[in-house]
Amino acid sequence: MSDMTFDVLILIARPASGKSEVIHFLKGLAPADRRTRFHVDGLVELDDFPMLWAWFEEDDILERLGHDRLHTTPDRYFKHDILWHVLIERISLEHSKLLRDRPNLYDGHTVLIEFSRGAQHGGYQAAFQHLSEDILRRAAVLYIEVSYAESLRKNRRRYDPERPDSILQHALSDEKMERIYREDDFRVFSAADPAWLAVKGARVPYVVFENEDDVTTDRPDLLARRLEMRLEQLWALRRMA
After folding, report:
1. In this structure, are residues 23 and 114 in contact, taking their beta carbons and an 8 Å threshold?
2. Helix locations, 109-147, DSSP H
């Protein structure tokens, strides 16, 4: 572990809760400022959305060519629930390849892992079981907390139909939001301890970033103050691990 920055920062939340905006904010900072105030080094991002979107596009191509879709239905639900866990396994695989090719990856870099999970398919309790031990022993978790109503509001607001594959502008239908993300299990997952998640024998520190007041939208000063405070708390826990 670096003396100043996280090796692995896992950023989780309901859709449209502010994850992408937090990442955008961190990427826009001067490197020295990002390291000293937020304990984040040069960012290497692992996000399951591009993987998921590639499945949609591949299935659309297969269907157009007269073949069966492999991963998703025509209305873009997964054909098999196990695919939610495959995405997390893919994140773990990509992380292992990064370390294989760059053994000194954490000298100057923080790997930032981003995903959302609803309780319907096992939630975070199931998803974290598919993260590798290499990730878990290095990780710290920032959970951005908003209500379902706020997630739904922001999901509607951000949608750009011309850029459905965009990290910042993709969105789900109200029906998908209701079905997949209404129930969020993070509070259940974390109920046993106010600061540590127990996963596969690892103790993973976490903090909650409250965002019901939406400091991640056009409020950079408030975002900076709250994020700095939460990541300072998380860094203190990480150093205790």
Report:
1. yes
2. 123-127, 133-138
**What is the chain's length?**
241
User: What pLDDT shows up at residue 168?
Assistant: 47
Pairing of the two strands 202-210 and 196-199: antiparallel
Comparing 210 with 162, the larger pLDDT belongs to 210
Mean pLDDT of 168-196: 89
Question: Token digits for 37?
Answer: 């105030």
pLDDT score recorded for residue 157:
84
- C-alpha distances in Å from residue 7, one per residue of 20, 132, 209: 19, 14, 19
In CATH, 8-240 is 3.40.50.300: yes
- For 137, phi then psi, to 5°, come to -75, -15
Structure confidence by residue, pLDDT tens digits, 160-173: 666 655 444 457 88
Q: How far apart are the first and last CA of the chain?
A: 11
Residue 132 makes CB contacts below 8 A (sequence gap 6+) with 92, 95, 96
Q: pTM of this prediction? A: 0.93
Given the structure tokens 């949609």, which residue do they identify?
56
Q: CA-to-CA distance for 65 and 60, rounded, in angstroms?
A: 9
